[in-house]
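I am still getting used to backbone structure tokens and would like to learn alongside you. Please make up or recall a protein chain and show it to me in full. Would you write everything just below, so we can both look at the same thing?
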Amino acid sequence: MRKTLAKFSVEYLQILDENGRADETLMPVLGDARVREFYEQMVRGRVFDETALALQREGRMGTYASIRGQEASNVGPALAMDKEDWLFPAFREDASMVARGVSMEALLRYWGWDERGNDVRDVNVFPVAVPVSTQIPHAAGFAWAMKLRKKRVATLVYFGDGATSKGDFAEALNLAGVFNLPVVFVCQNNQWAISVPRAKQSAAETLAQKAIAYGFPGIQVDGNDVFATYVATKEAIRRAKEGNGPTLIECFTYRMSDHTTADDAKKYRDAKQVAEWEKKDPIKRLQLYMKAKGLWSESYERALREQTRKEVDEAVKKYESMPPAQIEDMFRYTYAEMTPQLKEQLGYLKKSIEETKSTGGANR
């Protein structure tokens, strides 16, 4: 006997196209101030990104992962979250973190190799997670804790297309599906896992459909459309808080810059492809929409850029004027209280430093 056990489909959502035209039947109810907030947060992300790249090139900051071209995938989901929800970033979510209340100064410190930049206890944001996919189980576990405590809180976790090939991804989604957890998985599919193209990452037609195997819905959205990323996330968070479980959102976007400042993407991808995606810029398309609605003008843009530049410059000044970190900081924040082993290691390190100083480095 043969029979069909089930059939599945994957939805795609685009509200604002690359020419700034919106499908009004799908538009969320947003006031003018909210639309401007979307735009202003994306511009903040772009200006911060440009500054961070310049600082790295000047030797004033460490290796940096650019978010250029992915601002809508950053800002839409972040602004769809409620205050009590928790964000779990990977390492290409600077605009998301800023929109959720993390200071630019803290982000600059982090990218400047100062772990004090990860001390963001005053907002509901977990630290940056550079190891690919490790933050995904963290978000699922936190969501489970919230469910056990009967708190109406959702978690949202970011990761890239490359992370969908990792075991952490599979384990976290399976856990979330089995225990019906209030977690939103947001995949920024920017088409490249460093130099591995999406076509060689998975044979699946979409990454969103991977959710089906774990028993919950997945949706692919135009990742350069801030309205689509916002709506999909808003719906997913509402679903999670109503007890209906997790959702996987695939933001179909593109990494316009190198993987990091330690990479040279020209060695493995076609400039024509980059040029085509340049036409789909998320900031430009929202600007076109706002101009048609009378919400954007050149004077508004100049004022916004000037104010944002001042904000970023002030963050740079604070970052560069901060005293160096103490040796203890490498050990102090691993646990609430330092363990005996960490105290022993700290003592050994201090002793070694003093011995090196007293001998002029002869015992190194």
Notes: The first helix runs from residue 32 to 57. The two ends are 74 Å apart (CA to CA). The chain has a mean pLDDT of 96.
